[in-house]
Design brief:
It is a single chain. With 339 residues, the chain is α/β, with parallel strands linked by helices. It has 2 domains: 16-149 and 293-310, 3-Layer(aba) Sandwich (Rossmann fold); 152-289 and 321-329, Dihydrodipicolinate Reductase, domain 2. It is 30% helix and 26% strand. It has 8 helices and 15 strands. The protein has helices at residues 43-49, 63-73, 101-111, 126-138, 153-163, 180-196, 292-306, 314-329, and strands at residues 16-21, 53-59, 77-79, 91-94, 115-118, 142-145, 170-177, 199-207, 218-224, 227-233, 242-248, 251-256, 261-269, 277-279, 284-286. The strands form 2 sheets. Strands 7, 8, 9, 10, 11, 12, 13, 14 and 15 form a 9-stranded mixed β-sheet that branches. α3 (101-111) packs parallel to α4. The longest helix has 17 residues, at 180-196.
Length: 339
């Protein structure tokens, strides 16, 4: 499938009703003023564009925000709290702040939706995340976790290239991120695990002072395929960054612009230095990340109608949460970096 191309699979003609809990940025705010943008960055816009889902209701205690959200996304029903919801729904998007995830996810167990599409991480505490994944399994409620890059076509293609051996042996890599080891660092670790396989903790180098009293940003080292990857944290108060650089025997792969772009640099003979092999300049290409939310709904739809596996579920999200917890508990090797 080409980057940005929709699947041509013929799905059954079924429509699922969705409930969105929380009416903030990831629910619809990132897309609210971008009427001409082809990117789909939020749950509400994804439901609005997907032919097999319809957002029927939202939950938001702030009445002005709730009404504006309903009007912007043409959502007929709005409620101040989950216990006031009196209409049926099949799928729920959990878009509240992370510290509220556990309570909302527990409350939804009694409502028995077919699937919950939760923002990452599952919760802010590993024990709660493990408890809830087990509870959803017992209740036979599917849990999909929005580690978005797993549905970006260009990143999926890169995974296939790596697995096919196109780039040769993995030599190691580096990454740059901001805004918390669990919050955004887990996103980074998840996409690395998606591309390279199981990750293992190696070291916690330092915690940076970036104003985050909870979930600090950390410089860490993990390993994949026996090689090290250094995740370096920056101060998110200055800017946001999410870049990955991977080195293979046959080239270098860089994910830039928050993974909206990818640069592939292969190996060639140097035109300047006889006997040396150099990297080509490569060119930046889109990964299709702007359509990953639609890809997520395609995956959810295939799961509900035909039993396809979810690309990002409770177990894959638990894997990265466990890794973050182990890294955060390691002894710090260097003093805190001050800004």
């Amino acid at each position: 499938m080409l980057i940005g191309e929709r699947s041509t699979t013929m799905w059954p003609t079924v429509t699922y009703d969705a409930l969105i809990i929380g009416c903030g940025a990831i629910a619809g705010g990132y897309d609210s003023d971008k009427t001409d943008s082809p990117d789909v960055l939020t749950h509400a816009k994804a439901y609005a564009q997907h032919p097999n889902f319809r957002a029927m209701a939202c939950v938001e205690p702030d009445v002005d925000r709730r009404r504006a959200f309903q009007q912007r996304w043409n959502i007929p029903h709005g409620f101040a709290s989950l216990d006031m919801v009196d209409i049926p729904f099949d799928v729920v998007s959990v878009c509240v702040p992370t510290e509220l995830h556990a309570d909302v996810l527990r409350s939804l167990l009694d409502r028995k939706p077919r699937l919950v599409f939760a923002e990452k991480p599952i919760t802010d505490h590993l024990g709660s995340s493990q408890e809830l994944v087990a509870a959803y399994e017992r209740a036979n409620i599917s849990l999909c976790v929005n580690y978005l890059r797993r549905w970006a076509p260009g990143i999926v293609s890169l995974k296939q290239e790596i697995e096919a051996g196109q780039w040769g042996r993995f030599q190691g890599g580096s990454a740059l991120y901001t805004k918390g080891l669990l919050n955004n660092g887990s996103h980074m670790l998840d996409v690395l695990a998606f591309l390279l396989g199981a990750l293992h903790p190696v070291a916690l180098l330092q915690e940076i002072s970036d104003g985050r009293s909870v979930d600090p940003s950390c410089d860490v080292i993990v390993s994949a395929q026996g090689e090290h990857i250094h995740l370096k944290a920056a101060d998110g108060r200055a800017f946001t960054v999410f870049d990955i650089d991977l080195i293979f025997d046959r080239g270098r792969i860089s994910l830039t612009d928050s993974s909206f772009s990818i640069v592939r640099r292969s190996v060639e003979d140097s035109a300047k230095f006889l006997g040396y092999r150099m990297l080509t300049q490569g060119k930046s290409e889109p990964t299709g990340l702007g359509q990953a939310m639609i890809g997520a709904l395609d995956n959810i739809y295939a799961h509900l109608t035909e039993g396809h596996a979810l690309v990002s579920d409770g177990e894959t999200a638990l894997d990265v949460h466990r890794l973050c917890a182990v890294l955060a508990a390691m002894p710090v090797l260097f003093p805190q970096r001050q800004f």
